[in-house]
TrEMBL record:
One BP annotation, GO: signal transduction
All residue ranges annotated as the Tail specific protease domain in the record: 519-720
InterPro entries: ClpP/crotonase-like_dom_sf, Tail-specific_protease
One Gene Ontology term of the molecular function aspect: endopeptidase activity
Protein's UniProt name: Peptidase, S41 family protein
Matches recorded under PANTHER family: CARBOXY-TERMINAL PROCESSING PROTEASE CTPA, TAIL-SPECIFIC PROTEASE
Gene Ontology CC annotation, any one: outer membrane-bounded periplasmic space
Length: 745
């Protein structure tokens, strides 16, 4: 291979003779300038000084800071969840927030994060200047066409902004002067299969996990007509993609570095703009077969050999100086004798010591941003429910600015209101360490016509069939309006259930307005009771339906309070042998983790539901892990006769998972009311102040791949009780199931 330096020398001499040829020559002469960078800059410390910012963003600053913190929290090489979250709290304290100051404050306190002023530069169109045998490339948008007579190439990486499209522009530049693909370094990054549960130590049975492994990068594709020698011009600060490009090419011995050394930490970072400032967040460690690459990639020449000093960026080396230097062949391997001090990302674990209960405006703001960032990365249903989380975040932050947060219940309510926009029936928020209720309103409520109606009660003077019309003088319609605005749910029935549950917690005696089945409203003062009234809508045990006039039919209640094990299920199913029909009650919550009960109810091979989990391979590559299986039936005992499935608005999650398979196999007739439309393993997010937020972490589809979320199990036959039915203890859904099994209608 010809000496690139001799070619550069020839080109510079040619350029000097032809200065009158115009602006292109002047540009080349200027861009060949450089500064001398001493060996003292080869330290890996203060890598922030060597990064180039990118443009700002159109996103509101809180949304952008949420994204930056999400990168740090879930992909960064710095501290774990809790320490990064506390840095965010510190940055967001006060009566209001200066988002630029908060960005700097946050970056100062988090390892692997740098705050920089955003740049106004954008990625311009690619430029190719030809000076004799030298092609000078300024990467940018559009194709790169290298003149046929070119014998060497200079690619200028200086002052390129960390703007969208830069990585692709650089790939086009090297591709245009290569006939063979150029290998790229792998990057050790954190992988996420769903969002790891932050409350429970991970086990082999965990649905979600994270781990750290190398991620291979595709080589730079070759599109050129000739393999040309390449020199890269580097400045004191580079955009992350430009630094990555330089490290890739120099480690592959594909290019020389001229100008300033390249700090590998910059190449391992990602630009995250916030407002007038932004952050470089380091998310990887670059590696090859020998391990981590050096912290600093030294230049092959600082150009001081050519008579240039610091600050002489407009100077041009003399032709004599260039001719005196000859680098032939390919660059020598980069020296790797200096120990690498850059850390790699580490696996994230659940916290061993939980955050203490605390409240402040900074905690509330930080928790809102943390929850927003986590759902942005891991909530799977935006395509189904719509994406309103940015506007909801701004709405909640405005409330914090308006009313300072002084107790944990305020933070909890803000987070509940945020979660409401997800329309997710698992969207709960718990305040650890908050005040304990004085007791409970010990009734079991059902929803009839949009009103809470008592199904069971152990409270004196409160009876089944009573409709709750008010609480402490607040009309129930008004009370429910406030609470449903803080209740996340995918279907109306479950939304009412989530809101109405909050009637149960009592801080002291309360007066309830109650409308009896006779239409008369009375007011009853209720004392808090020591226990809640829990359980499924019905506690009826498995057995014959002879007491309801159908001795030929059998009933099985799968609620965990009634049938708590697979062994009990087998015994109940054996007792049902010979029945002409079976009523399967899934209005409660089952306790079966295996597919065995379904295998004994479906006599032919069947498909499971489709489980789709979000997967991040480092911070850039998103995909899905999808699982669906075919299951074989089991016998002895089993049941192959007609089955009616009972569901209702409290049929949620595991109840629905059981039901999805039965309905997907077309094994049952469904009677009752629509279920909650919420299934999938919960992701649990632990935040400062002792806040624990839940959301569904995987997408669930029916076995035929149709949408489940927000649809739920829809009855073939609608059946809704009345207040009179509840007062009489009449199970109308069960009676309707019996009617169908006996008449087929």
């Amino acid at each position: 291979m010809s000496s690139i330096w001799n070619l550069i020398s020839h080109g510079v001499c040619w350029a000097r003779r032809g200065q009158r040829r115009g602006r292109g020559t002047a540009v080349l002469l200027s861009l060949l300038g450089g500064s001398a960078w001493g060996q003292s800059l080869l330290s890996a410390e203060s890598w922030c000084d060597f990064g180039q910012a990118g443009p700002t963003t159109a996103l509101p600053a809180p949304v952008a800071l949420s994204a930056a913190h999400g990168q740090t929290r879930f992909f960064g090489t710095g501290p774990g969840y809790h320490d990064a979250d506390l840095a965010l709290v510190s940055a967001l304290e006060g009566s209001s927030v200066d988002w630029d100051a908060a960005t700097s404050h946050y970056a100062d306190r988090v390892e692997g994060v740098c705050a920089l002023a955003a740049s106004s530069r954008t990625l311009r169109a690619a430029q190719v200047l030809s000076v004799g045998p030298i092609a000078f490339i300024r990467p940018g948008t559009g194709d790169v066409q290298v003149p046929r007579h070119s014998r060497a190439v200079i690619i200028d990486l200086r002052e390129l902004p960390a703007a969208p499209g830069l990585e692709e522009a650089l790939a086009r530049a090297i591709g245009a002067v290569s006939t063979a693909p150029v290998a790229r370094l792998s990057e050790r990054v954190r992988h996420h299969i769903g969002m790891t549960d932050e409350m429970t130590p991970e086990s082999e049975y965990s649905a979600y996990r994270n781990f750290v492994e190398p991620r291979a990068r595709e080589p730079y594709a070759a599109t050129g007509r000739a393999e040309l020698p390449v020199a890269l011009l580097t400045g004191p600060a580079l955009a992350p993609a430009a630094a990555r490009f330089a490290v890739d090419l120099r480690m592959a011995q594909r290019a020389w570095l001229v100008g300033a050394p390249v700090h590998t930490a910059v190449a391992e970072s990602k630009w995250m703009p916030v407002k007038r400032k932004g952050m470089l967040v380091r998310t990887a460690r670059l590696e090859d077969a020998q391990g981590a690459v050096p912290d600093v990639i030294p230049v092959d020449s600082s150009l001081s050999h050519f008579g240039l000093g610091v600050g002489s960026s407009d100077s041009v080396p003399s032709a004599q100086a260039l001719q005196a230097t000859s680098f032939s062949g390919v660059p020598t391997p980069v020296d790797r004798t200096t120990p690498v001090v850059r850390n790699a990302p580490e696996k994230r674990f659940a916290l061993e010591v939980l955050p203490p209960s605390a409240a402040s405006s900074g905690i509330a703001r930080a928790d809102l941003l943390i929850l927003h960032g986590a759902t942005r990365l891991f909530f799977p249903y935006f395509g189904t429910v719509g994406d309103g989380i940015d506007d909801r975040l701004l709405e909640m932050l405005a409330l914090v600015d308006a009313v300072p947060v002084t107790h944990v219940q305020q933070t909890q309510r803000l987070l509940l209101r945020f979660n409401e926009v997800l329309q997710d029936g698992h969207g709960f928020v718990y305040a650890r360490g908050g005040p304990t209720p004085a007791g409970y309103f010990a009734v079991y409520l059902d929803e009839i016509g949009g009103e809470p109606v008592v199904r069971r009660s152990v409270v004196p003077d409160v009876h089944p069939g009573d409709t709750v019309t008010s609480v402490d003088g607040v009309p129930m319609a008004e009370w429910l309006s406030v609470e449903t605005a803080h209740a996340s749910a995918a279907t109306p029935g479950w939304k009412h259930e989530v809101a109405a549950r909050r009637l149960v917690n009592m801080n002291g005696p309360s007066t309830f307005g109650l409308r009896g089945v006779d239409g008369v409203t009375r007011f009853v003062q209720v004392q808090p009771q020591p226990q809640m009234l829990l359980g499924p809508p019905s506690f009826r045990g498995a057995g014959s339906l002879a007491d309801l006039g159908a001795p030929e039919l059998h009933y099985m209640n799968l609620a965990n309070q009634v049938l708590s094990s697979v062994g009990q299920f087998r015994a109940a199913l054996a007792a049902a042998q010979g029945a002409s029909g079976l009523v399967l009650d899934l209005r409660g919550y089952p306790n079966f983790g295996s597919y065995e009960p379904r295998r004994r109810l479906i006599p032919t091979p069947f498909l499971t539901s489709v489980f789709r989990t979000p997967v991040w391979t480092g911070p850039e590559e998103f995909g899905w892990q999808e699982e669906q299986g075919e299951i074989e039936p089991m016998s002895n005992p089993s049941f192959s006769g007609p089955i009616v499935l009972l569901v209702g608005p409290k049929s949620v999650s595991a109840s629905e998972d059981f039901s999805m398979v039965l309905t997907g196999a077309r094994r049952v007739k469904v009677v009752g009311r629509r279920s909650a439309g919420t299934n999938g393993v919960v992701a649990r997010l632990l935040m400062p102040g002792g806040m624990l937020a839940w959301f569904t972490g995987m997408e669930m589809l029916f076995p035929d791949r149709s949408t489940f979320h927000g649809v739920g199990i829809v009855p073939d036959i609608e059946s809704t009780p009345t207040a009179v039915d509840l007062a009489a203890g009449r199970d109308t859904e069960l009676l309707r199931a019996i009617e169908y099994l006996r008449t087929g209608q």
